[in-house]
Amino acid sequence: MNSLEEIRYAAIPYVFIILPFIALILVKGFTGNWGDLLVTSDWAVASAMIYSSSIINVRSAAKEYKGNINELSLDWFMSITIFMATISVVLYVLVLLVPSTALGIAQILLFIYASLSHFKFGRMMYRLKNKNT
């Protein structure tokens, strides 16, 4: 397996995730409103979307291996991923209701973790889809 191909496979959809955030950072930088980056709830929404799409993509890639895949591990993955998506949604609501620097930092850290998870899950999907080739 080519590790670079796995990363490219995961990076393609991630470009569509990260581009709006690059634009957001540039706009806030040009306007001097750096503090607004922390209290915008976009970070938490993106995290929830990353986790939600990962559930669908991994489950879809694993369908071909019914009976040949560790169902317990797949269920554990699904549970943890749903849990992380739920945390993202809760954080989203909290940032909307009581915006604070601490919540802002928490949601950015969660976004970074979700982004790293996206690449991990993307590599897993690549391996599942290319196992028979």
Description:
- The chain is an all-alpha fold and about 130 residues long.
- Helices cover about 85% and strands about 0% of the residues.
- It has helices at about 5-30, 35-40, 40-60, 70-95, 100-130.
- α3 packs parallel to α5.
- The longest helix has 29 residues, at about 5-30.
- It is flat, with a radius of gyration of 17 Å.
- The model has no long low-confidence stretch (mean pLDDT about 85).
Which sequence of SSEs, written as H and E, runs from N to C? Answer: HHHHH
- Radius of gyration in whole Å, from Cα? 17 Å
What is the count of β-strands? 0
Distance between the ends: 10 Å
Q: How many helices in DSSP terms?
A: 5
**Beta-strand content bin:** under 5%
Q: Are there runs of 5+ residues with pLDDT below 50, and where? A: none
Please bin the fraction of helical residues: over 70%
Question: Which structural class do you get from the secondary structure elements?
Answer: mainly alpha
Mean pLDDT equals 87
The best one-word shape is flat
Biggest β-sheet description: none
Features:
single chain, 133 residues, mainly alpha, 0% strand, flat
Entry summary:
The chain has 133 residues and is mainly alpha-helical.
Q: Which helices and strands occur, and which strands form pairs?
A:
Layout: H1 3-31, H2 36-39, H3 42-62, H4 71-97, H5 101-129
Helix pairs in contact: 1-5, 3-4, 3-5, 4-5
